[in-house]
Design brief:
Number of helices of chain A: 3
CATH superfamily of chain A: Hotdog Thioesterase
Distance between the termini of chain A: 22 Å
Oligomer: homotetramer
Order of helices and strands of chain A: EHHEEEEEEEH
Chain lengths: 141, 141, 141, 141
């Protein structure tokens, strides 16, 4: 039961090749990860995590393979899975599909910070617990 | 019964003042107008209108009043109403609200074109008919 | 001698009609206004105004007429002129041209705020003085 | 002598943490790669490559390490170096720095296509020659 995030791809996202511009795709993956947090934390995404819960998750790495063009012909479904959880870091795997076709897949690494001082720090205990409940460890690739 | 388009406002949309960056707002109004077309034309937005139906609706004017900041605290509901329909033009009123509070209101004017030649032209007859069925004429302001 | 801001229009900005997507244009006008401030205030744009000088300029209104498509064939030159200065507000006229052709023209109204409390307030005296030196009052349209 | 692309980072790019939003960074790397092509091909970027020269360079992979936050305090200088050239592919290394500090580094892989049929194809011979003249092969990492 992974979290799935739906994106409406539109004209606004497409370039003259009539497919979504490449630069849109990492942004959608990020939107999907934010959606994962909203889903996990009772509606709280990055904004509430930083401002209300005083922890942040800045990105230290992203890696994406683009498999098929994304178009406005279908909604884009982004599956988000936390695959590794360290003391002060988390790794997500995000897979984007349209009409069943694999469009992109990527890995995204965040570190946890105490937001008000922008310093690395373990996440709040209740957050760690909730992540552990949905973690799907995967063999390193 | 106006068309309402829901936007997930997130961290990604906010500037250091902790509210949505102004430049995001016209883009959301445009997304909402595209959503209006999808709703009116059985799922066909600007992309399908241009590529499958060979008509376009380039913008010739936009005017927006910003009434209250937009934040990630609520979904942003954009109400889209076609308020004037000329032979080769259409005017939309778009009103954005969050939790019942008016955030912005604007007027957007498009001309209809034959897409493959990028030339002004009346919209297809079936499209005109569908617009007329939802038109809510308003006194000029 | 108005401030002119140059924009590199690229593939990334274009939609399947092979012209810049409408939603990019208000963003460029905003970039140009930010550039005007950088030019006026020794390199300080909105970011430094808010964080270092403790005043902000949120938008209350924008109005744009789109005259010709914007394309990557030329740089886009945005001329920015402050045309009205009130006690707590400022109005800019922004005109975008490519290769001498008028592409868009618009009017943008900001209010001045004290940034840390997000409350309307007159701008710092030295800022007012610098604006007055470049103000080009225009008859209301 | 690598190509360097300058980005004006502004308020518009920053999130409530007062640093550039992560999703902006891959877009800047892409802008820089487009700038590399403009520099190599007498002003022709992706737009002119596709429309005038009938070849495209869709992305198949990107990988970015984020080393330090990007802010509006300095211009962002993106160094772009083609590091591998295959029969129908090219790999770029892009390194972003601000005031001498390393902000991010990444690798981007494109395939060459014949644009009008969107099919993999070697690049035009004159383009290959120009790339070879600036290629800086690097050991695989």
């Amino acid at each position: 039961m992974s979290y799935e995030h739906e994106i409406r791809v539109t004209w606004a996202d497409c370039d003259p090749a009539r497919i979504a511009y490449t630069g849109r795709i990492p942004n959608w993956a990020l939107d999907a990860i934010n959606g994962f947090w909203e889903d996990l934390l009772d509606g709280d995404g990055w904004y509430q995590m930083e401002l209300d819960r005083n922890f942040g998750t800045p990105f230290v790495h992203m890696s994406i393979d683009f498999r098929s063009p994304v178009t406005p012909r279908h909604r884009l479904i982004c599956e988000v899975v936390p695959v590794r959880l360290g003391t002060t870091s988390i790794t997500f795997r995000v897979v984007g599909r349209q009409g069943g076709t694999l469009c992109f897949e990527g890995e995204f690494v965040n570190v946890f910070t105490q937001a008000d001082v922008f310093r690395k720090a373990p996440p709040p205990a209740d957050v760690r617990e909730k992540i552990e409940a949905v973690l799907q460890p995967q063999p390193a690739q």
